[in-house]
Amino acid sequence: MAHSSALPSPAALPGISKIVAIGSGKGGVGKTTVAVNLAIALSKLGQRVGLIDADVYGPNVPLMMGSTKQPVVGEGNRIEPNLTHGIKTISIGYISPGDKPMVMRGPMLHQIIRQFLQQVNWGDLDYLIVDLPPGTGDVVISLVQTVPLTGAVVVSTPSDVALQDARKVLEMFGQVNVEVLGIVENMSHFTCPHCHEVIDIFSRGGAERTAAQFNVPFLGSVELLPAIREGGDRGMPVTLAGPKSPQAAAFYAMAERLMERAESAAAAASDVIEIS
């Protein structure tokens, strides 16, 4: 294998304590929903949070965060992130709004990801959450080459098809030496509002079994709730209601588990740096 010194070595971003990527093997599993609600939950739990929408082909963060404002570019070409619901956010959707698709090759993607990381005025953050595009493509490589990641969260539904793709993403993070801080099972089950029977639409529990198989933590499951979808569509994510809201409780429990995992991963990384 070629020696890796040819690759640019990742440089920490000053003022940012932890960078966590949220990934999934395929689209449509609710990765952005999880990223946005985790970001808000972390913020409501007292953390300073930034959110990068790195899903350059399908940027859904502007809709889900309810902001379409074009970011201000200040001196030295530095971009001011939008502040929405207390979270500093950047997305290609703010820069190229509307339905015009972003048609881009790898090098352009790399440039955008680097700009979002290095040219945005993030200030001091406890967490920078990066919402990745689905799959195992260029953006992940760009991210890993640009900054040291604290770790990643993998989102999947419990269906066999989604889990098959989630396993590829778990393997990919392993190959690029990024610790998986946990797996989230989204759209885990549905409770009928009329008879209150629990229906396992996508066969519940699959993501938890996959987590055990790969020996990575299971961060929790999110029920298939109309309120979660409605909140995202209206730009008012369900977690804004706070930890006492029954619809938001799963995200808060997940955010607390993620904080525990991320703290210990960050501490382990700084120990390694000191020894060397």
Features:
10 strands; eight-stranded mixed sheet; alpha/beta; single chain; two-stranded antiparallel sheet; 9 helices; 276 residues
Describe the structure in your own words.
With 276 residues, this protein is α/β, with parallel strands linked by helices. The chain is 38% helix and 17% strand. The chain has helices at residues 31-44, 61-65, 92-95, 106-118, 138-146, 160-175, 206-213, 226-234, 249-275, and strands spanning 16-23, 49-53, 82-84, 87-91, 125-131, 151-156, 180-185, 190-191, 198-199, 218-221. The strands form 2 sheets. It has an 8-stranded mixed beta sheet, sandwiched between helices. Helix 1 packs across helix 9 and helix 4 runs parallel beside helix 5. The longest helix has 27 residues, at 249-275. The radius of gyration is 18 Å and the shape is globular.
Overall shape: globular
Per DSSP, the total helix count is 9
Strand content: 15-25%
- Secondary-structure element order, as H and E? EHEHEEHHEHEHEEEHEHH
- Please give the radius of gyration in angstroms: 18 Å
Number of strands: 10
What topology, given as strand order, has the largest sheet? 3-4-2-5-1-6-7-10
What oligomeric state is this? single chain
Helix content: 25-40%
| Main β-sheet description | 8 strands, mixed
Mean pLDDT: 90
Amino-to-carboxy terminus distance = 24 Å
Q: Runs with pLDDT <50, length 5+?
A: none
Look at the helices and sheets and give the structural class.
alpha/beta
